[in-house]
Predict the 3D structure of the following.
Amino acid sequence: MDEMKEKPGPAEVPPPEVRYMEMELVWKCGGCGYLKPREDLAPKTCPDCKAPREEFYLLTED
Ligand SMILES: [Zn+2]
């Protein structure tokens, strides 16, 4: 059935612009506001203000 083809499995990664439209999780530095994509782990220290990882928190953007 053609309908099967139009429904990609969960393994398929949508293009960046689509992901941007969806709820996006990012790490945000509490010290300077530096943002880092959620796909990565929180940095040990902020590359901008050298704040420790504890300063980073998950920010939900939608
Ligand atoms: Zn920072």
Summary: Residues 13 and 48 are 30 Å apart (CA to CA). The longest helix spans residues 16-21. The pocket of zinc ion is lined by residues 29, 31-32, 34, 46, 48-49, 51 (CB under 6 Å). The helical segments are 2-5, 16-21.
